[in-house]
Design goal:
Helices cover 27% and strands 24% of the residues. It has 390 residues and is of the alpha/beta class. The chain has an 8-stranded parallel barrel with strand order 1-2-3-4-5-6-7-12, surrounded by 5 helices. The mean pLDDT is 91. The structure holds iron/sulfur cluster.
């Protein structure tokens, strides 16, 4: 079965990704990883994450994908050996030096990062020849090219299926370095392409009240799942280690259900899963490069901002005697209708009849983020379920 690979910026996100259906997660350690600003994993966290994932037959991949300079090399061998001891299944790297060190001193699977922009079969076979197990294809490869590559190599191939795109060749960009002194290839991308800009022609501002952005739309390749499965692709990657737990649960679960449906019925209810994804996706999406070079519909010329979902109102912490214990994330009131989103169940909803605070006093309005409340529910719920307002 094709692997569904999910991002995890911390231990809680790792657990949620696995519970909501990921076959593997990718995480960043404290060293040698891009996204250095994510709340990256300590070695203890990595060990705990591996133990948890392995209990559910899921794998853990650790990113070691910086483009290292001389002063980034110290301690690499020891770090890779520590990862192996923690139970890590694979590392994702872009540097030949890091690949070579892992292949020489550990039994970790080596996956070639998309940072290497592998877009042709000769490059892929080179990585195979030196001992790498998998290539994460460049996001700039079309579906036609992907099929051609697949027909010419038996290398494990991972492709992106959902998440943020880079306007440059996957991180090969100096915009962030230029605008904010943060190196995109050493984990510091400030997403300067998504900032608000004025558009000037000569000395005339022509953006007419709207700000202009240089960003790409996010990728959503839901409709290509049959092509990926039928062409024996190894893994489908969701991007976004910085995204929220609600986003990860929602997107992972939609793809999990869509993939399972295709294996079972050879068909997918795209509308249903697209609707599910949109409950958490807060940026416009497109099909990226899968249909060839992107056109205007793949860019985000006008920046619409990234408002978090207002429907998502809380996390279930526990269930006791007909009440769910819930951490509030967004505003809701008594008489609202809430929807419970769980890993395995279909969506369930109910009208709120009673809210209590932890002193068992009645509450009418919940508007304090992170406040813990008890809400009467007509069915049982579980920790790691999410609550949305309909
Ligand atoms: S600033 Fe934008 S284009 Fe540049 S590396 Fe970051 S995401 Fe890519």
């Amino acid at each position: 079965m094709i692997e569904l690979l999910a991002p995890a910026g911390n231990l809680e996100k790792l657990k949620i990704a696995v519970l909501y259906g990921a076959n593997a997660v990718f995480i960043g350690g404290k060293e040698f990883s891009l996204r250095s600003r994510a709340s990256n994993f300590t070695l203890e966290d990595i060990k705990e994450g591996c133990d948890f994932a392995h209990k559910f037959n899921a794998k853990v991949h650790v990113t070691t994908n910086i483009i290292p300079h001389n002063n980034n090399l110290e301690g690499l061998k020891e770090y890779l050996i520590s990862l192996e001891k923690c139970g890590v299944d694979a590392i994702i790297c872009a540097s030949l030096y890091i690949m070579n060190t892992a292949l020489k001193y550990t039994n970790l699977e080596v996956h070639v990062s998309t940072q290497d922009s592998a877009a042709n079969v000769e490059a892929i076979n080179f990585y195979k020849q030196i001992g790498c197990k998998r290539v994460v294809l460049a996001r700039e490869v079309s579906l036609t090219e992907l099929k051609d590559i697949r027909s010419k190599t038996d290398m494990d191939i991972e492709v992106f299926i959902h998440g943020g795109m880079c306007s440059s060749y996957s991180g090969r960009c100096m915009l962030s370095n230029e605008m904010s002194n943060r190196d995109a290839n050493r984990g510091g991308c400030a997403h300067s392409c998504r900032w608000n800009y004025d558009l000037i022609n000569g000395d005339k501002k022509i953006n007419d009240g709207n700000y202009f952005s240089l960003a790409s739309r996010d990728l959503c390749a839901l409709k290509y799942i049959p092509d990926f499965i039928d062409n024996n692709i190894t893994s489908l990657k969701i991007e976004g280690r910085m995204k929220s737990t609600h986003y990860i649960a929602t997107v992972v679960n939609a793809y999990r259900r869509a993939i399972d449906e295709y294996y079972k019925y050879k068909t997918i209810d795209y509308e249903k899963y697209d609707y599910m994804i949109k409950k958490a996706e807060n940026r416009l999406t497109s099909i990226g490069f899968y249909n060839g070079d992107p056109g205007v519909n793949e860019h985000l010329y006008i920046n619409f901002g990234e408002e978090p979902s207002q429907e998502y109102v809380g996390d279930v912490l526990d269930y006791m005697d007909g009440y769910m214990i819930m951490e509030v994330k967004n505003y809701f009131t008594i008489d609202d209708t809430l929807e419970i989103f769980s890993p395995k169940e279909e969506l369930r909803n109910f009208k709120i009849t009673e809210i209590l605070n932890m002193d068992n006093e009645k509450v009418l309005v919940c508007n304090h983020p992170n406040e813990i409340v008890k809400i009467k529910v007509p069915f049982s719920v579980l920790k790691y379920d999410f609550v949305r307002k309909l």
